[in-house]
Design brief:
seven-stranded mixed beta sheet; 7 strands; homopentamer; about 55% helix; Methane Monooxygenase Hydroxylase, Chain G, domain 1; 10 helices; about 350 residues; Beta Polymerase, domain 2
Chain lengths: ~350, ~350, ~350, ~350, ~350
């Protein structure tokens, strides 16, 4: 599962950077896109402009216009682009480093002229049945939003469509509302993941109730690990959104506050679901273990019943298989049928005993 | 079980809304009622008026009177009604959205002119033995309360009866007291659920002590899941009531404060009970597992006793079933009775050994 | 077990009150006493007066004297008495309701003229080996204390005796000190319960170490449930005492503060003990389960040893019980003793093997 | 184990004091010393005086000198001594009561003229392998320290030696530094206990890894209970030292502050160790249980292999032990060797099967 | 494992120091280096000087220059060096003691003229597969940093190289930035440990899934203990870095603040990983235990199938091995084939039964 950049990610990071001074700009992480793609969108209530830029310099004039400018960069491996943006909007070197380090913990930094946010976007890969994560950095200032993605994906396309078609209130609001819309889109992605995991849990639960197998255990274990990893992403997400909501930065207008509160409520809802799923999975493990031991019990019961009935009977037939010269019973005419009678009696009374003990 | 709207609910929600701008008004959730029903109640200490409205416009003149007006709307699928109310009392679009989204987490929003509360009402469905939940939104201002329910149920009827018959102090108090009464009614519903679950726990416990079966395990698991889900509704409920109690809004009069504290105490009592029930269910699982392993132990004991007694005896009779030509014992006259004597001795001494070890 | 009024109590309460307006005075709970008994005690440093009142009106003149007046009411089912007291000292209707509702969570309400406290008094019923609880409400003002009990018990008698005989410092102190003394007496009751439960735990532990049986498990489960219930009473008790200690009410004199701190320390001690006992009981459950599985292990070992020794031997004697015409060994003169030798060898070498594996 | 005065101690306390007014001076606890011993030490930077007092009155003149006076009282059963000291330095009656009640929870009381501290001193009894506890009360004012111990032990002797020989900085510091030194000595005692328990844990762990037996389980359980009890003493100790460190009493000089911080760090270290040991013990229990079930598994495997090989073989020899008149195989010349060949084949192929399944 | 200085370390410490006054300077811990080595580095933006000092006195002139001076001391067993430094920069005796006591808990002390920090540096010893820890003390003032290590290791060499080659921004910043760089280097070491432990966990997990053995359990237990020990170092590390970040000392410049926040984020990331690993290890234990019980189940199933099939058949052949004179079946011509038919029928129908029960 690639969701858990935990030890793996850190490992790579540190190995790469050891010996470099803090602040050196190196892209850490998988190179996920072939070519860096720069998309620019400029709008206000009346105008709308969109273009694909070749170089980052093309973006800057747009940024200085009074309209809201959204620069979206897909692909982080061209370090010079990040560097130029950094110089243009005067970002602290550590922030540039953070944008490039894709193993960052979700966090928020509040500067006077802009706010920097790192988040994890999660995708459910239908083919491999795994959760994939990508780092999204968002910088927004008075009239611009710059977003960095690791690869080109289309999660922000519906948002572009909304801006293009002048739906909703986004064209009337500022850059902070656009940043909120990006965050909201990311948080919505978590719900989709939860939905998928929820379906998986229900599937496993059904199998577990019907026919538990060692595979079931491994599935539960896998889901548990995913929940642990999801949890790892969600808690810092909550912190970030909460910090943003409580922020007193002048970049966030009053009318955006209620939307931030709304997205905060959604992160809480995600956390609630993660915690509940963890509880449910723990409960499932208990039930699984009990089912297994129940099954074992039944097998043991059958063995016991068969063995306890036939062991004494086998002994009896053994007795009359002995070759002693003087065994009077052997010469009796009714000896054979009598011994059958005795054995039937023993067998039946044992069955009665078992029924009384409620074993069968 | 339909209590847990957790992943299911969110799933639906997100699938429905993906691609829509935030703020678009769509009813999310099951359409639980055929027709939207609007009930209006106007009262003060001296007057009382009640009517069934056909359109929402009928309600507005009443709202502007000095009397307290309670508008109750059953059914959320007629979006235009919600929209008209929103315009009339100047509600934020996000709130309208929240009213329509029946998968909302319980929350409270404090505006200057009104307070908005979302809660979950729980019902115990006797037929299916399941817990059903419905979202109730309450908006109250200086002289009006508007409540939204998903379907027509009669939980608020006793309250209407109290107002009608001028019982208690409700007619003398303001809109805040009416809102409190609605919340109190909802919290009371939680006690009924707890009562039912408590009964179920006791039933399962009785069965578990008398005759535990794999079914018992599934019942414990089911009750545990319900407790988890109930917990999910109760904790945010506590937060909402606590926020309302500590609110410094001018809409809440001093004399209502103590009633809010009372209902807050009730939510704490609900939480206490949920937590205790969770502890009790965990304990029951332990006891169940031990009972099962105890039962297995007893079965094993019987097997062991039968096997350890008869295996050596069967060996002995096997010995004298051998066909060696030269086996002196076979020709002895007392050989057969002697071997019986030896075998009895072995059997009895084994039984003594078992008794000494306290196995039987 | 009657300690846990949890779901049961709430159930009754809600069923009784459903449909009544909040504030309606109804006695909820078992009617534990036949007749309501009113006991009045008036004292200051120099005087002392005590009498049994027939009606509650008799108490009031006393209350207006400068001396400290302690009115103790045993039995809550005569609602009019509570109502009259409520009117006399001008209590909020909700408080009257709380006094009558014996399923109240321990709490404190701080009014200007008086402080209202609800606590649970616990008794250990030696006959049924169960914990019984009773609700005690205490109202104290500048110069009076009114205490309500559900039934007539003698826990406060030693306190009366101390007042009567002018022992200690109680006669020199105010009503707040008397209230403290009542609370202290109640908290002391918790120590007695803990003592009893501690004894029970030690008894069960002893049995568990010596001869664990399925009964032991049920005992541990029962003790655990009692601990859970006790915990439920103790934590709110702590809150109440802590609120009282930190209270800035003018009704509590500075010199009483240190006594309240002392009783608060005691509640902490009770909580410590409850938590430790819970830990100990959890540990006992682990040990019990291991003991059971150890016992099973031993039984299995015996079975294995017997079976693994005799199954091959039985096979061997079976071989020479075959009726083939051409089996040379059968006609050898030393065949029979030789086979005995072989079998002894097998048996002994197996025993050696088992000893080497440390199974016997 | 005598460490856990928990329920036992409380029990005694309450039984002894029931019916007495709060504040009555009674010595509660075991009488651990024969005779009360009073030791007085007076010093400043230049002088030093030490004597054994016969009566408590001898101490008082010394106390009024400008030098620092340390009065140490071993043995609490002479209530009048405590009473006289109480009058001399004007202690609150509840404090006197607390000194005498040896089941006190560690606590601190800050008066204007003196600070009162109760702590538990722990000893490891090498003979009985148990932890013994003793209550130490420390009262210190501007120029005096009075310490109360239950019995005469020599833990404070090294400290006396340091004062006597003018080592370190103690002779230059005030009474607060002496009090700190006493507390530091007590906290150091906890490290010794932890060391002993740590050794015990390592011993048990070694045994567990090499040869787990039911005794091991009981040892783990015992160590766990000790850890629980130690924890009970340590957490309030931390609270006391923390309160002392944060105290704004004028009795504590600025230069002593850093030493108090140091001793506070030590208590944190003790808590860390206790919590880690608890975790380690929990882990050990898991490993123990698995070891036991592993052992069981191996035993079962041997049984299964023996049984599954020989049961079919025994059946085969049984077949040819039948006495049918018409069994052609019995008269074949190669019948007997052939049957041996068949049986060997079966046995060997089964062994192969087992190896393939990795059972042997 | 040498990571956990927990009880062991404390033990040594206390035994060594018992009887000494607080403040006596003794080196506690293993003597890890042969000779104390003193390394001095002086730099500002333009100059750079580095030398190996023979005596500590050589360092002092450098310290008084306006350049930043970094004195690094490897080896703590020469107490006089520490003492001289203490006098030179006027350190509190307790701090000197703390530097020498290598069993210190990570902590920070904020003086006016300097800040003192103790941290644990962790190394992964590839040869023994164990975690080794070393105490690092850092003292920094306006223009100097003094660092103490237990032995000579080269972790700080990359940092020296960066200063030497004038890379990054370190030469432009003050002593606080140098101290930050040291801390950052230490925290980076934790990531390396986590990486190693993460690899170990993955290795064990792989083995566990493929072929769990009792060794696996011991490995899980070992990893769990290491995680517990790591956790013990990490939490106080977080506290130290957090205190440093929030410190209002004038020694920390504003522009260093953001770097401290960055290193704080890293400690949080370490803690997150430790907690997740603990969860994962717990989950692995559950899976391991279930795997073992699954394996047992399979073995039991084989035994049961073999036994339940052959036990009745063996009985049947036993019947016809009896020597009764009058057993008509024995003389039937088709008796022998008939009995084979019956036995085949029984065997096959049993196999069918087992398949129906899904046992095979």
């Amino acid at each position: 599962m690639s969701l858990g950049p935990g030890q793996n990610g850190m490992r790579k990071r540190r190995s790469t950077k050891t010996g470099l001074p803090p602040g050196a700009l190196v892209h850490i992480g998988e190179k996920k896109a072939e070519k860096v793609k720069i998309n620019i969108l400029g709008y206000d209530e009346n105008q709308y402009e969109e273009k694909e830029a070749r170089t980052i310099e093309e973006c800057f004039p747009l940024k200085d216009k009074p309209t809201i400018t959204w620069i979206n960069i897909d692909g982080l491996h061209q370090v010079d682009i990040i560097e130029k943006i950094g110089k243009k909007i005067d970002l602290h070197p550590l922030i540039l480093e953070d944008i490039l380090n894709t193993e960052q913990r979700p966090k928020i930094e509040d500067f006077e002229t802009c706010i920097y946010i790192v988040l994890k976007m999660l995708y459910y890969d239908e083919k491999t049945n795994e959760i994939d994560s990508e780092q999204v950095s968002i910088i927004f200032g008075h009239n611009f939003v710059i977003s960095f993605q690791e690869k080109e994906v289309d999660v922000f396309n519906p948002l572009r469509e909304i801006i293009r078609t002048h739906k909703g209130r986004i064209r009337k609001m500022g850059a902070d509302y656009l940043a909120y819309s990006l965050i909201d889109t990311i948080v919505d992605g978590y719900f989709l993941i939860l939905e998928k995991l929820g379906e998986n849990i229900e599937d496993v639960e059904e199998i577990m109730m019907a026919n538990p197998s060692p595979e079931t255990l491994k599935d539960i274990h896998k889901l548990k690990r995913r929940m642990i990893s999801l949890r790892k992403s969600v808690w810092p997400l909550r912190e970030v959104v909460s910090a943003l909501e409580r922020s007193e930065s002048s970049l966030i207008h009053d009318q955006t506050q209620i939307y931030l509160k709304d997205v905060y409520d959604h992160t809480i809802q995600v956390i609630d679901s993660v915690e509940i799923n963890r509880d449910v999975l723990s409960g499932m493990l208990d039930v699984y273990l009990s089912s297994i031991s129940n099954k074992m019990n039944e097998i043991m019961k059958v063995l016991t019943i068969i063995a306890t009935i036939f062991i004494p009977l086998t002994f009896i037939v053994g007795v009359y298989g002995m070759n002693f010269e003087f065994m009077p019973e052997l010469t009796w005419y009714w000896g054979y049928p009598a011994i059958w009678g005795v054995m039937l009696l023993i067998g039946i009374s044992m069955l009665f005993y078992f029924r009384k003990r409620k074993w069968i």
